[in-house]
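Forwarding these from the shared drive since the link keeps breaking.
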Amino acid sequence: MGNPVLGIKNLKKKFGDHEVLKDISFSVKKGEVVVVLGPSGCGKSTLLRCINALESIQGGEIFLDREKISGNVKNLHKIRQKIGMVFQSYDLFPHMNVLRNVTLAPEKAQHRPKEEVEKEAEELLHRVGLADKKDAYPRQLSGGQKQRAAIVRALCMHPEVMLFDEVTASLDPEMVREVLDVMLEMAKEGRTMVIVTHEMQFAKAVADRIIFMDQGNIIEEGSPKEFFEHPKTERARQFLNVFEFEA
């Protein structure tokens, strides 16, 4: 893995008087998969939203390729093109078919030729098993198919970093696997990813590094083997016991 592509330094985030993120610092190298774990309400999703400038921050700095991007309102649209984000709610446009959902942003925001974008979109849809759904509308798709379409939409923007926020949380159990398989394949391709998930087995399989958060702090971080087999803190041990995870 190469140099850090994403850097978070002393990040602070408040909602009113409630401090959600307390002096968070870490970096992500090019090609690295970092999985962020922790109990609900610990700040995981807020962290991703701050990285992608969907939330303002009250302190600290965020760097992409060593360039400070936090507070850079002027180039916000360019920053968001470099940091793709996939949400648990899909956020597909209901009045557009799958192909148009995928191609709209590259055409409009990046001014790329329609033919080029459609060719790439169709190739990506084929890779995630949605080639036959390109003309379907979101209402005609299962939850797993919608989420795979949302992943393809983000990939079509050629982001340097991909953020995944609990992308399987709203899926039926039988649909979870098909989405996780796509993400595992992306990890094998060397894509840089930061993933928030409650899927422990998936986290162990896909992560190069685990970051464990609680109450707005990073409690510990390390390799999946270290975290799941030899957690350093009592809080991490309690968390893993709740999931009844067997290493």
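-- next protein --
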Amino acid sequence: MTRYVGAIDQGTTSTRFMVFDHAGREVARHQLEHRQILPRAGWVEHDPVEIYARTCETIEGALANAGLAARDLAAVGVTNQRETTVVWNPRTGEPLYNAIVWQDTRTDRIMNRLEQEGAGDAIRRKAGLPPATYFSAGKLRWILENVEGVRAAAERGEAIFGNIDTWLIWNLTGGTRGGTHVTDVTNASRTMLMNLETLEWDEELLALFHVPRRMLPSIRPSSDSNFYGKTRTDGPFKGELPLCADLGDQQAATVGQVCFSPGEAKNTYGTGNFMLLNTGAEIVPSNAGLLTTVCYRLGAARAVYALEGSVAVTGSAVQWLRDQLGVIRQAGEVEALANTVADNGGVYFVPAFSGLYAPHWRSDARGCIVGLSRFNDKGHLARATLEAICYQTRDVLDAMVEDSGVRLEVLKVDGGATANDTLMQLQADILGVPVVRPVVAETTALGAAYGAGLAVGFWKDVEETRRNWQAGKRWEPRWGADEREAGHAGWRKAIERTLNWVEVS
């Protein structure tokens, strides 16, 4: 009897495999980190082979720990770090370059040149995205133009492209022995190559980035009863399972938070922060620096769209305190350190390591710490790091209100950093609205599981998944309006100090 559904959650710093029951409760989990490759300033890469190996290890580990086998699972879904770009040879399975990660800024000149040439308007109109280093198309163009032999290989059909979801699905469904080369509408909407209205690759956009169409995967629904393929019997599952859901991580979290109605929103706290607002079947262009993106498409139903505010560096700022500065030994120590001080002591930290994303979109910005005096200590820096996460979220929420006219009564939150109670209280204080974390905070994996389960009838409809959602903890704002606005004014001054730091031509 198939009692459970599995979900691969491949993130920026780690990969996990999780198993859920019909009530949406976690049954099993195994998680492993992978290397962050930093060849030079602004460059961020991953080894795709290592990521697939970690994926296999997490699947095998979770199943072994829980005493489960493939026969216990009804289906499997995939969710992934979006925009991270892989090019590989489909005949050998070998990547032709490291995966270029979404945080990477090496394409800033490509993007700036497109904007100067007037292509930005077409990209915004068709793809719903600004010409920014964040997205896949510029990374793919860079590989085609800078890695010897790749363009010629692409013309011969010996180089294909995908984001991490496509790479994993191709390997899990057979690899060089007939692996399926697919992506879904949510991941395709992050490439700058898909037309939001047609949900197909767009010839004008392909021409702007000089991308051969034959490199691209086919675009499928996020939850597909026709399956993308079945897992190979000699793979990590040791059996055939329908692989039938694929969502970019933030769209998966929106599904996991059961934000199925227009006007419902969630905010995920991970390596970066990502707020999505469901806008239904309507494509809502942003005038305030947000992204228009596909939220999900379930089977043959119409696609659902969203407004998104993407912040590049939030949880990874805590990792920076740990790995680069040695201020803390474990990420979880930041909360206790921040609580050694009553406030930020006048210190603001803007972690614009990859420039500023929504709503500013300034690739010329770089990180800064301002307001320091001899009075300040590492507790103030830890506190400023947590506040930076919250202030960046406020900037996004303000833009979302401006674009949509919807004022949130409550913010649903998820992701690993929501375990930090101090961070969540600061978020409620800085926003001035209650913050609610569900019982299952790892909603990214849960959303992929929901997509897979809906495709095979494990859950009969989205209303059945809604009944699984339960509030775990709620934080009410404690700051008064004056304290809130004074804090935000300091943050805005700090943002100004980050600008025009890097020459982009």
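The mean pLDDT is 93. The first strand starts at residue 4 and ends at 10.

- D.
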